[in-house]
Write a structure and sequence with these properties.
Layout lengths: L1 H17 L13 H10 L8 E4 L2 H11 L6 H8 L8 E4 L4 H13 L6 H8 L3
Parallel strand pairs: 1-2
Helix pairs in contact: 1-2, 3-4
């Protein structure tokens, strides 16, 4: 079920954007194939790609505290996430929320082209 779910999720993003919605999407891009797919699907849109980082000990603490996660998923994601993409801006989730919001909004307002997604698309044979 997982591959079909994420293929549907990825396909719904351009449909929502094409209908005129501005989107803020939280998503762990788990594979390079997903990254390629998202870049292709979202190519017609102005994507501002934010990397949200968190130190591994904090991720593992949160994983245990939630109680609904398979122990080890945080480490697995940590070792893969952020290895095959670039971002328009990066923030640390252990920083105060207000600071991260201000950082992202400020960077978005002063963004330049080519965007991270534009650069990823031009650097790969998609």
């Amino acid at each position: 079920m997982r591959p079909a779910f994420f293929e549907g999720f990825h396909r719904c993003l351009p449909a929502l954007a094409e209908a005129g919605n501005n989107l803020v999407v939280e998503h762990i891009v788990e594979t390079e194939a997903w990254m390629h797919r998202l870049v292709l699907l979202l190519e017609p849109f102005d994507v501002f790609f934010v990397g949200v980082h968190c130190p591994l000990p904090e991720l593992e603490r949160r994983e245990i505290a939630r109680g609904d996660r398979r122990i080890g998923e945080a480490r697995q994601d940590y070792e893969v996430t952020h290895t095959f993409g670039i971002y328009d801006i990066e923030v640390d989730s252990t920083d105060p929320l207000e600071r991260n919001v201000d950082t992202v909004i400020s960077a978005w307002k002063t963004r330049n082209r080519p965007s991270a997604f534009d650069k990823i698309a031009s650097s790969r044979s998609l």
